[in-house]
C-alpha cells in the first residue's frame, strides 16, 4: 500500500479515501493485533474487503444500494 501524501492532520485533501480507510480499519482489522498478520494475509483481507465493499455492502448515501448496483442505476 502507498500512504496518503496529504498534509498531516488535514483529512479534507483526501476525504473519500480517508473515509474508506476508516471503514476498512474498523470493519476488517478492528480486532487484529498490530503486526500479527503477514503481508500476504493483509493483501488477502483487503482484496476480500474490496469485493465485499463494492458488491455486497449497502450504503445509505447510495439509496441503500451497493456501489456496483448504484453505478448501474445511475448510468
Give a short synopsis of this structure:
This protein has 75 residues and is mainly α. Helices cover 52% and strands 0% of the residues.
Average pLDDT for all residues: 86
Number of domains: 1
Beta content: under 5%
Count of discrete alpha- or pi-helical segments spanning 4 or more residues? 3
* Rg from Cα: 14 Å
Q: How would you spell out the order of helices and strands?
A: HHH
Show unreliable segments. Answer: none
The end-to-end distance, rounded to whole angstroms, is: 31 Å
Note the overall shape: globular
Give an account of the 3D structure:
The structure is a single chain. The protein is an all-alpha fold and 75 residues long. It is built from 3 helices and no strands. It has helices spanning 15-28, 39-55, 67-74. It is globular.
Give the SSE layout:
Elements: H1 15-28, H2 39-55, H3 67-74
